[in-house]
Amino acid sequence: MAERNGQLKSVVIRSFRRFSERYFPEKAAKNLMSDVEQKEEESHLGCLESLPVDIQFLIMTFLSPVDICNLGTTSRYWRAMVRDPLLWRYFLLRDMQHWLSIDHLTMPDLELLDAPLVSEHESLEDREEGEEKNREVIFDYMSEYLKGCPSCRQQWLPSRPAYELLTSFLQYLVPSSEPRYAMFGPGMEQLDVSLVTRLMHAPDLLPVSGTPQRQINGIGSGISYLFNNQHKFNILTLYSTNWAEREKARLQQQSVSNKLFIFEGTNDWGHPVVIPAPQVQKVCEVVDGFIYVANAEPGKGDEASEVAQIRAVLNCVGDSTTKPLLVLSCVSREPEAASDRAKHRTPCVYMAKRLGLPQLSNRWMVQDTVAESLAGVLDGIAWLLKSSGVKI
Questions:
Q1: Of 38, 69, 145, 263, which one is least surrounded by beta carbons within 10 A?
Q2: How many other C-beta atoms are found inside a 10 Å radius of the C-beta of residue 355?
Q3: Which residue has the higher pLDDT, 391 or 34?
Q4: What angle do CA 215, 221, 226 make, to 5 degrees?
């Protein structure tokens, strides 16, 4: 990733340099001028425009997306510079691995990042007007960045239609039953720190408002929590097998026979096809949504089986598209140095891609989570409750 960013950075600077030389031809001939002539020429340029393009680019890397957009309103030169697709492609590759969450509305199109780079000999000014418009439609990295960036995404989210606002108002007037969610996934069982145990012993974060009254075939039990000291919800944990087998598999770093799903074979692409066990199907029918706990530690996760299990759960009941899916992309602990964060977990954007979430019809969200501190859990639960019609 670092090598890819470095290559793109060089291409961006070369593109900027060619455009700057074309926009300010007097700067290209600067070396032929005397010192007096150079000072007179620089006085006609703005402070930033007179700087080398390498410095201009460096300054932009320290600006927020909003500041960069504001810079583009100061002159025609900066408008063209900040709209360079390569610049926003660089920002997208650099920053999205640090985003803490992503959802079905803000997920960037990662296929754009696989498109070939623009020729380094083609400056911004060289592009024909029609070609530039077409390029912006196909490779609009600026829109993809602003849509997904946490500090900008609220401005890009579509406004809710009037009928949705009316529905939310009616849901607020009519007392609703306690939302129930089924929680499953390898992150519940493979990590050194148990997310479920931490949830049950964090009264300052999520107080337990109800203890389990029953079990479903010994697989899991429902626990009620209180969000914001006023919104009650229930989580039904679905484990792949009993505790002894899970602990043995975790210590020996082995896979465990998953009793939640029944293997039916493979499809035309060789991917596994599974269906939920009968007792799991009954759970899926009564819950209001799903929480999938993914193992976000480096080198973990079986993409094919994870995708198959998520789709099996979502597709086993009719009209399942109304049930939201929250993915807690979980690691055991935070790294000591904040700069090492991206190295110690799969970024949420790539987790969404790994789990095949962009292809789902359901509303979904991936939230970075830490089992030890429960960082990110409240943000994920808040989204899930809102998606279930709870007014927060």
A1: 263
A2: 25
A3: 391
A4: 140
